[in-house]
Structures are given as C-alpha cells and as structure tokens.
C-alpha cells in the first residue's frame, strides 16, 4: 500500500478531532483543541499533514511536525495519529517523514517523544532506526496518575547510513 501526505485543510479538522478521540489513540496523545489545530495550519514552523491511502484516496491519519524554521535543523515529529490501525500505515508514514525531514527539509535531527506505555509505537520507532535518548520520568499527569515519555531521535548521518543498508 502507498500513502500520500497533503497539507491539512480547515475542512479536515473534524476528521482530525475524530481521529484523536478514538479510544486506541486517546490514551497515547495529548489531544489539541480544534482552535489549536486551526492555528497550526497558518504557522510556518509547523507542518500539519493528512495521511491518505494513495490508491483509495481516503484519509487514514494525520501527522504534525514542528521546528521547520529551527536554526539548529532539529525537527520535532510531534504527532502521528492513524485511524486505520494494523494495516502498515504507521510504518509507511514514518518512512516518508524521515525522507521529507532529511532529504527535502535538510534536517540534521528528527526527534520525538512517545509515552512509555505505547510499546507498539516504541518498537516501530526503534525498528526504523531511531535511537533512544532518554526518559522524561513521570512528566505528564493523566487523570490521577503520572506517565513517562521516552525521547528518541535520528540524525542525518544515521538516516543516510540507514537508507544505504
């Protein structure tokens, strides 16, 4: 299956909200208000993108990246949220985001954080060459409990080496 990324439009915000609210997604992200999504569309430092199945043309998720104007060439992969789970879309999106970040946007570093309990996502990032940098211990309070974040990154030279093997 092939995917296509396109800029999120205002008309996509209800889909984005609905995807965030899915039970399988809500536990692993910090949902934004619709107004924050809308504001991000006009921010030159952020890329808010809809993921589409290239063959079917339907939306299957969205991603948010920040730091496109970062003078240190460090881009944050803020969010990947997929509405059609266990079909391989997440891996395809991650591969395309790496290509965009390093080959098109000239990033030196692509980084992200993931909730420690999101084992499936953590395994995906590690299997795609991301390096674990550390843990932000109990840095998020969700309801009545604290959660930790794992920080991972990939450098341009690691991406180059990864794509040559």
From TrEMBL:
<dbReference type="Pfam" id="PF00583">
    <property type="entry name" value="Acetyltransf_1"/>
</dbReference>
<feature type="domain" description="N-acetyltransferase">
    <location>
        <begin position="3"/>
        <end position="157"/>
    </location>
</feature>
<dbReference type="InterPro" id="IPR000182">
    <property type="entry name" value="GNAT_dom"/>
</dbReference>
<dbReference type="InterPro" id="IPR016181">
    <property type="entry name" value="Acyl_CoA_acyltransferase"/>
</dbReference>
<protein>
    <recommendedName>
        <fullName>N-acetyltransferase domain-containing protein</fullName>
    </recommendedName>
</protein>
<dbReference type="GO" id="GO:0016747">
    <property type="term" value="F:acyltransferase activity, transferring groups other than amino-acyl groups"/>
</dbReference>
